[in-house]
Task: inverse folding
């Protein structure tokens, strides 16, 4: 399967713990995006990379969130000191410079 | 503020019915509008529309964009139970070049009953 891959599929953590998610984009795609989706809502933009450069971050992305894309391939999203409000589906997507986003199956985070 | 509004929020139909889903938008420097289908997991891409009045078609699904009135519709004919999903509309716009950053609506939940 050459689609967008995300790991883990599910993560349950206690409030205050740190979590890290990984995304492997479609190999020839130079752009990579992170979105967050809560129940009954559409995905909300968090941040995006073009190759290894992080070009934009949403106001939603507090200083507890950090994303990296070393070498312009896979990306990680880390959430420090998790809060219950961080519970959501975290979706990764990739694209070429011009073209639709292709989404992975997401990582569902539950903060207890 | 840029926004995307979808209607109806939810819809229940019977197999074989035709449905029309609506998406209106307000976005600075519009570039494209996209439709996605989301079942339990990843949104899957359906259509990307950039020009007014040109219908895009894939099997029983079709979509058209009206850039003057700022809306798009997604039609599904002869619905099947496998069409049950959330249908998401998203727009790309803003300044600073083409970023592909999308603003999504809340989606329309379609349930097709046998």
Result:
């Amino acid at each position: 399967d050459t689609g967008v891959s995300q790991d883990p599929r599910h993560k349950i953590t206690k409030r205050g713990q740190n979590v890290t998610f990984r995304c492997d984009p479609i190999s020839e795609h130079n752009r990579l995006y992170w979105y967050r989706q809560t129940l009954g809502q559409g995905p909300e933009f968090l941040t995006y990379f073009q190759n290894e450069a992080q070009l934009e971050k949403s106001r939603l992305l507090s200083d507890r969130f950090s994303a990296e894309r070393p070498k312009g391939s896979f990306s990680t999203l880390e959430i420090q000191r998790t809060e219950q409000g961080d519970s959501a589906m975290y979706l990764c997507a990739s694209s070429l410079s011009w073209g639709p986003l292709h989404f992975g199956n997401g990582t569902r985070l539950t903060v207890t | 503020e840029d926004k995307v509004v979808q209607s109806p929020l939810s819809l229940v139909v019977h197999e074989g019915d035709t449905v029309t889903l609506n998406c209106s938008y307000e976005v600075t420097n519009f570039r494209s509008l996209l439709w996605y289908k989301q079942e339990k997991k990843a949104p899957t891409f359906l259509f990307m529309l950039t020009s007014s009045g040109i219908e895009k078609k894939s099997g029983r699904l079709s979509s058209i964009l009206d850039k003057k009135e700022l809306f798009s519709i997604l039609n599904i004919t002869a619905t099947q139970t496998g069409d049950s999903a959330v249908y998401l509309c998203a727009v790309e716009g803003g300044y600073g070049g083409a970023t592909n950053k999308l603003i999504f609506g809340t989606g329309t939940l379609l349930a097709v009953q046998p």
In short: The CA atoms of residues 64 and 86 of chain A lie 10 Å apart. The mean pLDDT of chain A is 93.
